[in-house]
Inverse folding.
């Protein structure tokens, strides 16, 4: 057991956050965030609404810049990168938005091809078709290619959003509340899909969620956030059996 | 020691807005010349902006030409200058009324459309999704739309001018009878390059104002559905003001260059 955890510690660190602070106006959202994520690991961040969970992953991908602290992603300090290097780093990170953020003026196929043609510069139509076919089959929607996002249900939108993100083979996946707004059955399906995709594409993930069932299914490690800080950390089982009142309140 | 000047309230907000617009303009220019132009999106926008506005511009231009003749006629008759009707109409349409009215109509239709479209894309995180995927949303959404308006507004204004003259011809024939060939010959003969070249140039600026303001307002809308409406509304108001402001400058410059 000890040897196993030591082996895990020795794994390559892909995300390293140290002393991260972020304020909006007078409100300090992140007070002192420290987090290390190893390759292949699924880290779930739990916390109350407005506790700064999404802000953390937005800082990781460089959508927001920290006021203080450092964020190293794949060995590069995000806030020190110029536009070109940041863009290059972003091609290695996938971000699944809460509402899936599908481009609603494009078909599902065009959504899939958007980054492939513009970022990965793939121009061969046969290769594009094959990639789209493969990824849609992976997420269980092989016949959705010609549909418009408005024709899709909430669960289907999440699957297509996940497919669009995974199609460029990111090393890291950031999920912003992937099961919010879905019924329990679809939520469970999406959670299993996340796990399946992580195994298939060998991604490292940070998952922001309120959904305890999702956390139970996908998490290798759970971090609980409160008042801009991480207050508890461990496996789902460890936290489930925690004696701390605040931690227990999540598992009631 | 010099006292520090602190700007607050409305002025501060205005200055911040000007600064943001300058930054946005710089981003537009940088992306315009950075390569990777989105041709298919540009063509789609030209179709959406130009072709889909043609009916509206055509109808309003036709009515404008017709009404102008009906209004001008009694005044010119009073001065015994009825024969000047085609010339008066042509010069006023080509120089001023055609470009400005077309631009104002397009500000209402196109700037609001762009503002609402980009605003809703911002609210639903589609622009963020493009950005985090490593693609370039400014190149895809902004450059194509601004260039499409710069290209299509002059074209719409030219088509609107011709249709206005046809409206004027119909009005003339309600009471008099004039051959279309003669009418058009009179119209064309009354024009000089100083009439249509500055008018054409200013429509390019009008197009830029419509596209730029629409994109800026949409791209910088706040999160929340209410902000989509605000973006569309303020895009129309700001673009309309820009159009009159540009018109004033171009008329002043043209007057200095050609009529003094």
């Amino acid at each position: 057991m000890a040897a196993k955890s030591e082996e895990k510690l020795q794994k390559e660190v892909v995300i390293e956050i140290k002393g991260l602070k972020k304020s909006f106006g007078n409100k300090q959202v992140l007070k002192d965030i420290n987090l290390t994520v190893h390759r292949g690991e699924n880290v779930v961040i739990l916390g109350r609404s407005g506790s700064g969970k999404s802000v953390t992953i937005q800082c990781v991908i460089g959508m927001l810049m920290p006021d203080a602290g450092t964020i190293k992603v794949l060995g590069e300090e995000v806030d020190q990168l110029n536009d070109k290097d940041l863009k290059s780093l972003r091609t290695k990170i996938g971000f699944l938005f809460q509402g899936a953020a599908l481009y609603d003026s494009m078909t599902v196929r065009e959504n899939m091809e958007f980054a492939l043609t513009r970022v990965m510069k793939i121009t061969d139509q046969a290769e594009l078709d094959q990639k789209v076919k493969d990824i849609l089959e992976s997420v269980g929607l092989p016949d959705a290619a010609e549909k418009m996002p408005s024709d899709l249900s909430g669960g289907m939108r999440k699957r297509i959003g996940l497919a669009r993100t995974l199609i460029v083979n990111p090393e890291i996946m950031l999920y912003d509340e992937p099961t919010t707004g879905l019924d329990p059955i679809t939520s469970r399906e999406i959670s299993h899909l996340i796990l399946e995709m992580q195994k298939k594409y060998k991604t490292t993930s940070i998952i922001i969620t309120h959904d305890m069932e999702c956390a139970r299914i996908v998490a290798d490690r759970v971090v609980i956030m409160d008042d801009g800080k991480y207050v508890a950390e461990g496996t789902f089982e460890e936290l489930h059996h925690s004696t701390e009142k605040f931690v227990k309140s999540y598992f009631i | 020691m010099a006292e520090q000047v602190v700007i607050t309230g409305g002025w501060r907000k205005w200055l911040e807005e000007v600064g943001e617009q300058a930054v946005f303009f710089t981003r537009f220019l940088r992306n315009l010349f950075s390569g990777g132009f989105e041709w298919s999106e540009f063509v789609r926008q030209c179709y959406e902006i130009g072709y889909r506005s043609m009916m509206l511009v055509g109808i309003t231009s036709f009515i404008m030409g017709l009404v102008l003749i009906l209004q001008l006629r009694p005044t010119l008759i009073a001065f015994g200058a009825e024969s000047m009707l085609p010339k008066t109409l042509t010069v006023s349409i080509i120089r001023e009324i055609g470009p400005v009215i077309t631009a104002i109509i397009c500000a209402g239709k196109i700037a609001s459309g762009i503002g609402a479209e980009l605003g809703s894309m911002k609210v639903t995180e589609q622009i963020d999704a493009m950005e985090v995927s490593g693609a370039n949303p400014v190149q895809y959404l902004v450059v194509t739309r601004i260039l499409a308006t710069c290209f299509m507004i002059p074209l719409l204004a030219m088509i609107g001018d011709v249709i206005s003259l046809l409206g004027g011809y119909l009005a003339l024939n309600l009471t008099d009878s004039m051959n279309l060939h003669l009418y058009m010959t009179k119209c064309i003969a009354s024009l000089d390059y100083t009439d249509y070249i500055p008018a054409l140039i200013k429509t390019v600026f009008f197009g830029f104002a419509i596209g730029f303001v629409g994109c800026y307002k949409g791209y910088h809308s706040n999160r929340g559905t209410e902000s989509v409406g605000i973006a569309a509304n303020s895009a129309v108001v700001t673009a309309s003001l820009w159009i009159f402001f540009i018109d004033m400058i171009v008329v002043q410059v043209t007057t200095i260059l050609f009529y003094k």
Remarks:
- The longest helix of chain B spans residues 85-123.
